[in-house]
Design a protein that fits this description.
377 residues, 3-stranded antiparallel beta sheet, 3 domains, 6-stranded mixed beta sheet
């Protein structure tokens, strides 16, 4: 078994393995598992087995997959038989009856046709947690991310542009068009300030604690980069990396592969404060954040000094037009911002939002598109 120090990473990675095997394991179940493991002896394989099985398995037909994954991951023996603990297995009759009931319910909610008025597969996927999606469901959701990412914050341009309802005469166009009419200014032309996309800067946490949501969020960011000019994307774990150029390609899978090759500390620790300091020192001095909407995507788990997070967030707030913090864990109704980095950052955040499913990203897009005044997200 593992030590207490590495238990969180072990359980988070184990949850990802279970999701790849088809089990519905979201952040709420991971949190319940860690809470249970804190109250027992993690040196006893039976105690760890039954705690994880009770909190992470919701369907009887998933027991076999869970047992095989437990033996391969925690016992480090892929060839070992499925680990079943010291208690007897459930009766086959109850398992089959529950499996038939779950299969019937799953057919009602995840079929190809709507089951009742106002309820459809699309609606189910909009509200389903990214961490609990199967590969097929995630593929269908990924296509919808492009539409969500099209919304951008806007600003009034400084330059005057030709406009039919403008209030200022465009003297240059007026003189040019009058040449074809003997110098008579018959057709008047006007200019006005129009709305253009505001600069958008996104800093995404790719540490191990965010691994369940990293792929979905990076696909969303790839679509945001493709929505037009003025978008900058950075990733951070233990250090900061600029990924804007890697995300300019049209192929999202190629962009993710290039990003994974660039970020050497992918799925490692989290150092939010030093990463923010690097961003402020290097990119903030280049006026990248001046007048920009800054979106930080992170669960707020800081392994460094939380006071540094507060200090750098204060610097960032003074330069940015607005700061929006997206935390996938906020999608859990019982979530509280107890992490040190999250508590330190919240006083300088204009809007604190969830990012755990498609519906929450749609809400994020609406907030970004509706920012009209500084720090009024």
């Amino acid at each position: 078994m593992t030590s207490a120090g590495g238990l969180v990473r072990q359980v988070v990675t184990f949850g990802r393995i279970l999701r790849e095997g088809g089990l519905e394991v979201g952040p709420g179940r991971i949190s319940d598992a860690l809470t249970g493991l804190d109250r027992l002896d993690i040196g006893d394989p039976d105690d760890v087995y039954w705690t994880l099985r009770t909190t992470l398995v919701s369907r009887p037909e998933d027991l076999g997959s869970f047992d095989r994954a437990f033996a391969a991951w925690f016992l480090r023996d892929p060839s070992a038989p499925p680990y079943r603990g010291s208690q007897p297995a459930e009766r086959a009759g109850r398992t089959q009856q529950k499996a038939r009931t779950d299969a019937h319910d799953e057919g009602e909610h995840f079929g190809d046709e709507p089951t009742e008025v106002g309820w459809s597969v699309h609606e189910v996927l909009r509200k389903k947690d990214f961490a609990s999606m199967t590969a097929e469901e995630f593929s269908r959701t990924a296509r919808a991310l492009k539409e969500v990412a099209a919304a951008r914050p806007l600003r009034r341009s400084r330059r005057l542009r030709p406009h039919a309802r403008g209030r200022r005469l465009d003297l240059r166009r007026l003189a040019r068009r009058s040449l074809g009419r003997g110098g008579d200014p018959i057709e008047r032309t006007f200019r006005r300030r129009v709305e253009v996309p505001r600069k958008l800067v996104v800093l995404c946490d790719v540490s191990g604690s965010m691994e369940a949501y990293t792929r979905a969020l990076l696909l969303f960011l790839h679509a945001v980069v493709g929505s037009g000019r003025g978008v900058e994307v950075f990733a951070f774990g233990t250090r900061l990396h600029r990924l804007t150029e890697e995300f300019r390609t049209r192929d999202p899978e190629q962009a993710l592969a290039a990003a994974a090759a660039r970020v050497v500390d992918w799925a490692s620790g989290t150092r939010i404060g030093p990463s923010l300091k690097t961003f402020n020192d290097v990119w903030g001095r280049r006026a990248l954040t001046r007048g920009a909407v800054v979106v930080i995507v992170s669960d707020g788990w800081e392994r460094h000094d939380a006071t540094l997070v507060a200090r750098e967030m204060e610097r960032l707030q003074r330069a940015a037009y607005a700061i929006v913090w997206v935390n996938p864990l906020k999608g859990n109704p019982e979530y509280e911002p107890l992490a040190g980095g999250m508590r330190a950052a919240l006083p300088y955040v204009d809007r604190f939002m969830a990012g755990h499913n498609l519906a929450s990203l749609e809400e994020l897009a609406g907030v970004l598109a509706g920012i009209e005044r500084r720090h009024a997200a």
